Amino acid sequence: MSGDPQHEPRGKNGRAPDVLRVGGWMPMREYPQNEAVDFAIVGTGAGGGTLACRLAEKGFKVIAFDAGAWWRPLEEFASDESHQKKLFWTDERLCDGEDPIKLGNNNSGKAVGGSMVHFAMVSLRFRPEWFKSRSILGYGADWPIDWREMWRYYRIVENALKISGPVTYPWGPKRGRYPYRAHELNAAAMVLARGAEEMGIAWSPTPLSTLSAPRGLAHPCAYRGFCVSGCSTNAKQSTLNVWIPRAVKAGAEIRDLAMVGRVAVNEAGLCTGVDYFREGRWQFQRAKHVVVAGYAIETPRLLLLSANGRFPEGLANSSGLVGKNFMVQSNQAVWGLMDEEIRAYKGPPSLAITEHWNYADKGKDFFGGYAYMSQGPLPVVWTLTQTKRGLWGEALLKEMQHYNHQVGLKMVGETLPQERNCITLADEKDAYGLPIARVTHAYCDNDRRLIEHALDFMGKALDAGGAKDIWRETDDTCHLNGSARMGSDPRTSVVNADGRSWDIPNLWICDGSVFPTVGGVNPSLTIQAIACRTADRIGVLAARGEL
Amino acid sequence: MTNNRMRWAGIACILAGVAATAAVMERPQQRRLCKRARQVHIETSRAFNRSSALLAGSVLADSAMEHYRGSFSNPVMYVPPLVATFSILAGLHGGADRHAQTHTVRHAIYWGAALTGLAGTGFHVYNVMKRPGGWNWNNLFYAAPMGAPTALLLSGALGAAAERLRNQPARAPRLLGMPAGRALGLLSGIGLAGTAAEAWLLHFRGSFQHKAMYAPVSIPPAASALLLHAALTSPQPRWLARVMLRMTWLVGWLGLAFHVRGVARHHGGWRNWSQNLFNGPPVPAPPSFAAMALAGLAALRLREREPR
To answer: What stretches pass through the bilayer (chain A) (predicted)?
Structure first.
């Protein structure tokens, strides 16, 4: 181990941490600041990390910046929820609107690898119709990409991460076999399965990005259960231990602890590089192209922060849509108690899933869909859930005694894009002296109807699964998307299908903020698929001389 | 019993299995003696006794470990390790016994093992079917394994066949109304195919992540097919079947080494043996291929000498 990764950058002096070996290092190429690299990528999460890898493998000179630390999971991830808060983006932000969201553990990450370092590993494909939800299903907006093309990229990502999934998946068009077999179900997943069978709907082991068999130096899952606090065995296949090591091997440079504060644009209206803060000072990296991959809050924030005389409303914002149509996913739950011990915290938290209400269109009084999964909250999260319910003191103590018997179902629900849900800049400044983001959020009536339907159905399913004393957790959200949507019309979108901004041809966006709609599934697989597609498209455009 | 003592009991069972394996290995000198005496069917019987013991060794270690993992939640879970121990003892005794006569106690033990295996299969089927999803892949992978009790059934069947063969005349012995070589060839060929089927299921569960995982699902099935062919067609020397069966024997012991290595690939490796022996590939499983190959080779030798 070497130094404190939160204060001393690790990606420098021609080497990078080899996260698969204790104390290991791997050589890393470094580029001079005054030489314009092909791509400067801001962010190393599901979008930026994946793109850095694929572009470097195509031979482009790439530097990817991340504000967070470069962790060594084998040595630095403790089985301690409080300690592992170091993985979350907890910089100051303002949350307002009718339904202000809570930012932190389940929707942000600040580390090389982004929030995939602590994601729950649920790796689902979109329902094909969602890519044309406006024209086929009558709500939201159409994607400018065909679902068949996306399914090809889903396959590539699933193979890259060796997703452990069921032999046959009950919903949607036929898909190839998952590279690894699904994991053994824990007792909480069995409750979901029993409930679904009683309710007459299909269920499945969840396709997860954690190994069910060895892969190279990565160990198979030990069912430790601290997945959302960071995996200390490298069983979780993420940007940190898959895409980024590949990127470094292919010649990309990753700069950790490097906060990008501005994308520089010249007189001609083209990006020239990025200003970033690292090792106590602001520095400038020249680049031929800039890719913003900071996720749905930091991406619009950076575009707005980079406003200048030429682009007074922020970069790529001629449509006025940067920061608009910000979407969360509803994350409400029902909880109950079983007579027998469940120990829901054993193994990955979401081992079983039903996507029934993503694929069924009958019997709904709302647009969109939702999936729900079995749950395994760790003790601190579980205590907070109980205090949110108003329990304290003796009552809280009593409830916590049931921890080993509690079981629950939690939804990932689609919310509709609304322009009033947006990211803007506040007057307050952060530690770097940059205005912080203001996150404004409100559900619409359709969102509320969807949530009500889900809570009602999950309540019945949990009851049918054998739980008693069922209650509802009504106010959680997860996964942030939208805020710089892609489209086929420059007036109604920020970027085109390739993630290339309409206004500035050498400015790209590659993360969840390009989603026109969110669907009812966790977004990470789709973000990575888009990143792989963007890389391929950049390769094609470069070959044609159209970059 | 405390966890720790259970753990030592598990180790003791494994060591017993290893010791038994070493003991039943064929000794070349004895083979020469038998051949000189033209007691080919007795030699075959003894090989089947040994094969049965080796298979029972696998069952003993495997069932002791897996039922320990299942906390012996049902008292009948103690039965298979116990019965397998008797089956090993019977096999060791029979392997050294040159008498041309059925040994009643051994014969009874073998029937007990076979019936235990049959009952165990029932229990395991019930365990799979009572889970949500019933007969689906996830339950076949992770619920009580179907193939495991069948190995005990097979161990009993091999031993019982050995005992019955001893009562047959040296010239043209018969079993189940057919030439003994054919009967034993069918028995060991089918047993070998079943063992390979179980390896396929579990290696499929492991996504064939290592190329060596294809070996037990390709070589033993080929050996099984050749052996069944030799059993069903007119007797003649079958060199290819013999070669494949010898390779199957090798697959069994190399598999053991690969599984030992596989345990090391889990988090903490062998330093964390008390968890990884259970999470990793089952160390005692592959030698069952060696056991079936021993039986198959003995059956083939007998079959090759049978009148056309």
So the answer is: none
